[in-house]
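Query structure, 389 tokens:
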């Protein structure tokens, strides 16, 4: 979906396909048929943007076989779909029964991460629509926080510097400018937007920046305006933003709130949980840990890294951090010029929701994704953007 900003530039809105995990190119093509095109039809649009997730095997097939890339490009066009951004965070196995800490491997200290990201940028350059010259890729924020030391930090810095050189070369070769954004996430070496400023300033390259995920922003209790202003003032590019909402519990000390939270403690994904105390941010690596005894102070609200559907906040006594998303979006695209032009709805946890909230079959899932995109579209229009055909 495309929107015209009041300054005349085009803002792209997509939804991320990591909600339909597939490891191979055939699986990706099936996603387009079974999920993406039905969502487009529900929205009544001739064209729908998707933030494509390509696992290692799919990316390797596309970057080594030009005919495979042509097949994918043709299939996107045939189904009324377009790609300007890729989710390069998960490497493989995102559809496994247990993902948890595995999603952070390989990290930016491992040459495999550089090779995979390079492949993704080359694929994206070949997938961009003919009238689009800029693409984006989001990636993990260097590494999980342990083990991480100065030697590993030096390896990550070197890898990102090499990536920047490859992005420059790709632009010279293709005329397409691909930018990569580190995505701050609770528990990682770069947990907050403030953590991103130092490493990215050290890289000092306009094609390496940050991807702002509004669920992660909220989970860490960051104020959107303060965070985005700090990035802007530091000259750190906001490459893209993932529109997502975290799980919020206002009174975590109450038994009924604990019971409601426990329904979201599931075995597949990591749900880092945080609370803001007088002495600073406190947290656990997973929701289950927070619910065990006194592992996390409960005098103030808790937020958990659980991407809940944008249009359907959990029932009381829980809610979502949709207001944080709205505040961030106002700052991102509501000003005289957009801070980023790539927006991606990323609710990958539909099948991890409590059983009574999960979609029953493809049709209900498509209905839910379309409802999320409709909400995002309405927010953009309310900010003065005009939806384009």
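Result returned for the query:
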């Amino acid at each position: 979906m495309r929107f015209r900003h009041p300054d005349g530039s085009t803002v792209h809105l997509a939804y991320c396909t990591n909600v339909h995990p597939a490891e191979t190119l055939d699986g990706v093509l099936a996603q387009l048929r079974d999920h993406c095109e039905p969502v487009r039809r529900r929205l009544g649009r001739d064209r729908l943007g998707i933030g494509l997730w390509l696992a290692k095997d799919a990316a390797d097939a596309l970057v080594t076989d030009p005919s495979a890339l042509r097949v994918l490009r043709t299939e996107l066009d045939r189904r009324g779909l377009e790609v300007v951004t890729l989710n390069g965070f998960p490497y493989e196995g995102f559809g496994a029964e247990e993902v948890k800490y595995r999603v952070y491997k390989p990290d930016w200290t491992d040459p495999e991460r550089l090779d995979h990201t390079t492949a993704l940028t080359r694929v994206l350059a070949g997938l961009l629509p003919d009238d689009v010259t800029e693409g984006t890729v989001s990636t993990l924020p260097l590494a999980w926080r342990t083990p991480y030391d100065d030697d590993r930090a030096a390896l990550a810095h070197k890898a990102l510097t090499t990536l920047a050189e490859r992005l420059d070369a790709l632009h010279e070769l293709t005329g397409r400018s691909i930018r990569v954004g580190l995505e701050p996430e609770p528990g990682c070496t770069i947990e907050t937007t403030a953590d991103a400023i130092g490493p990215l300033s050290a890289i000092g390259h306009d094609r390496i920046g940050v991807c702002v995920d509004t669920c992660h922003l909220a989970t860490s209790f960051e104020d959107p305006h303060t965070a985005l202003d700090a990035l802007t003032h530091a000259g750190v590019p906001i490459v893209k933003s993932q529109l997502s909402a975290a799980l919020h519990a206002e009174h975590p000390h109450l038994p009924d709130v604990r019971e409601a939270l426990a329904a979201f403690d599931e075995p597949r994904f990591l749900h880092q949980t945080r609370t803001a105390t007088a002495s600073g941010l406190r947290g656990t690596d997973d929701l289950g840990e927070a619910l065990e005894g006194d592992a996390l102070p409960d005098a103030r609200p808790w937020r958990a890294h659980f991407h809940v559907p944008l249009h359907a906040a959990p029932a009381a006594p829980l809610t979502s951090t949709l207001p944080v998303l709205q505040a961030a979006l106002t700052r991102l695209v509501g000003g005289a010029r957009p801070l980023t032009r790539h927006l991606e709805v990323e609710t990958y946890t539909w099948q991890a929701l409590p059983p009574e909230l999960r979609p029953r079959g493809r049709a209900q899932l498509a209905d839910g994704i379309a409802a999320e995109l409709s909400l995002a579209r309405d927010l953009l229009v309310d900010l003065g953007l005009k939806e384009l055909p």
